[in-house]
């Protein structure tokens, strides 16, 4: 294994100390440390990611890239690949706090309308008992720590989780997933059958739905432009052909319009690639190669889909 240089160490330390970093900030840091720009020296950047990931894998950590689904921005962060939540959330959070976090994630990710968030009030009323698993619900024994987990403890926990970027609280009173959750929960989204975006194949937690009730297609808002810029698609759902009616007030389907962060993401958005599946092509979108390099251990995409009505039944709505 290649030894890590002080440059690798500095990048890892920055991610450990500061938490997930926005792509442009991470690139800037990379440029300061290596005196090379990821835009001009993509190969070097990818080599850095691979070298760091090889070293990190020994401690079951991974440097990963993901998109924040609310604004479409790419972030880089370190993820703990140990599977239980206790190690992921560290020693900072108690068992009922972790159960509460899981309840919030489930409520957000399994929402059939893919709004990407729940109201603060709804979050405060989530029941922790559902997180005890089969053993807990069968024995009807609720641990006192769960029973005594008051509204004010819940409020405090939401604030702490938001501080650590596991959650994000919006000014209009919604609890959304934080960047750290998007980084960390990719395999959880897949094993829990969270329907994926038609374009990039990542879980569609915050996404637009096809207006045809019987159709399961959902697309991230930031992926929509790419889907609809294909002239042949006539701005229609790729599955059922229904005219796509965007609910986003600011989504205008101008082909020449580029992503807000395209500047930092290099050249590939201008390349027209010919592939049969929309997904693949655009997933590796603007900076796909470096995200892919940071995601070398990503499991294969799950193509299972559920209909909106079965989603309602599944989560008991
Ligand atoms: Zn997408
Ligand atoms: Zn459709």
From TrEMBL:
<keyword id="KW-0479">Metal-binding</keyword>
<dbReference type="Pfam" id="PF07574">
    <property type="entry name" value="SMC_Nse1"/>
</dbReference>
<keyword id="KW-0539">Nucleus</keyword>
<keyword id="KW-0234">DNA repair</keyword>
<keyword id="KW-0833">Ubl conjugation pathway</keyword>
<feature type="compositionally biased region" description="Polar residues">
    <location>
        <begin position="308"/>
        <end position="317"/>
    </location>
</feature>
<keyword id="KW-0233">DNA recombination</keyword>
<keyword id="KW-0808">Transferase</keyword>
<dbReference type="InterPro" id="IPR014857">
    <property type="entry name" value="Nse1_RING_C4HC3-type"/>
</dbReference>
<protein>
    <recommendedName>
        <fullName>Non-structural maintenance of chromosomes element 1 homolog</fullName>
        <ecNumber>2.3.2.27</ecNumber>
    </recommendedName>
</protein>
<feature type="domain" description="Non-structural maintenance of chromosomes element 1 RING C4HC3-type">
    <location>
        <begin position="197"/>
        <end position="240"/>
    </location>
</feature>
<keyword id="KW-0862">Zinc</keyword>
<dbReference type="GO" id="GO:0008270">
    <property type="term" value="F:zinc ion binding"/>
</dbReference>
<dbReference type="InterPro" id="IPR013083">
    <property type="entry name" value="Znf_RING/FYVE/PHD"/>
</dbReference>
<dbReference type="GO" id="GO:0000724">
    <property type="term" value="P:double-strand break repair via homologous recombination"/>
</dbReference>
<comment type="subunit">
    <text>Component of the Smc5-Smc6 complex.</text>
</comment>
<dbReference type="InterPro" id="IPR011513">
    <property type="entry name" value="Nse1"/>
</dbReference>
<dbReference type="GO" id="GO:0061630">
    <property type="term" value="F:ubiquitin protein ligase activity"/>
</dbReference>
<feature type="region of interest" description="Disordered">
    <location>
        <begin position="251"/>
        <end position="317"/>
    </location>
</feature>
<keyword id="KW-0227">DNA damage</keyword>
<dbReference type="GO" id="GO:0030915">
    <property type="term" value="C:Smc5-Smc6 complex"/>
</dbReference>
<dbReference type="InterPro" id="IPR036388">
    <property type="entry name" value="WH-like_DNA-bd_sf"/>
</dbReference>
<dbReference type="GO" id="GO:0005634">
    <property type="term" value="C:nucleus"/>
</dbReference>
<keyword id="KW-0863">Zinc-finger</keyword>
<dbReference type="Pfam" id="PF08746">
    <property type="entry name" value="zf-RING-like"/>
</dbReference>
<comment type="similarity">
    <text>Belongs to the NSE1 family.</text>
</comment>
């Amino acid at each position: 294994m290649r030894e890590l240089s002080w440059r690798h160490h500095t990048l890892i330390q920055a991610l450990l100390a500061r938490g997930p970093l926005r792509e442009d900030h991470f690139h800037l840091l990379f440029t300061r440390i290596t005196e090379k720009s990821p835009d001009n020296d993509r190969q070097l950047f990818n080599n850095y990611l691979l070298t760091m990931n090889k070293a990190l894998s020994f401690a079951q950590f991974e440097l990963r890239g993901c998109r924040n689904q609310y604004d479409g921005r790419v972030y880089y962060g370190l993820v703990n690949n140990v599977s239980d939540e206790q190690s992921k959330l560290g020693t900072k959070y108690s068992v009922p706090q972790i159960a509460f976090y899981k309840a919030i994630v489930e409520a957000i990710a399994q929402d059939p309308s893919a709004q990407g968030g729940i109201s603060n009030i709804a979050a405060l009323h989530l029941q922790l008992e559902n997180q005890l698993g089969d053993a807990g619900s069968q024995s009807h024994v609720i641990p006192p720590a769960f029973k005594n987990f008051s509204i004010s403890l819940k409020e405090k926990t939401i604030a702490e989780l938001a501080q650590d970027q596991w959650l994000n609280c919006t000014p209009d009173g919604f609890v959304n997933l934080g960047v750290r959750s998007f980084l960390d929960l990719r395999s959880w989204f897949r094993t829990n059958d969270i329907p994926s975006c038609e374009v990039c194949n990542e879980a569609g937690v915050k996404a637009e739905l096809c207006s045809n009730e019987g159709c399961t297609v959902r697309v991230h808002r930031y992926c929509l432009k790419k889907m609809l810029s294909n002239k042949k698609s006539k701005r229609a759902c790729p599955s059922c052909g229904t005219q796509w009616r965007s609910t986003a007030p600011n989504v205008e389907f101008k082909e020449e319009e580029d992503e807000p962060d395209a500047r930092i993401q290099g050249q590939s958005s201008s390349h027209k690639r010919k592939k049969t599946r929309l997904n693949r092509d655009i997933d590796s979108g603007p900076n796909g190669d470096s995200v892919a390099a940071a995601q070398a251990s990503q499991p294969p995409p799950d193509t299972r889909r559920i209909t909106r009505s079965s989603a309602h039944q599944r989560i008991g709505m």
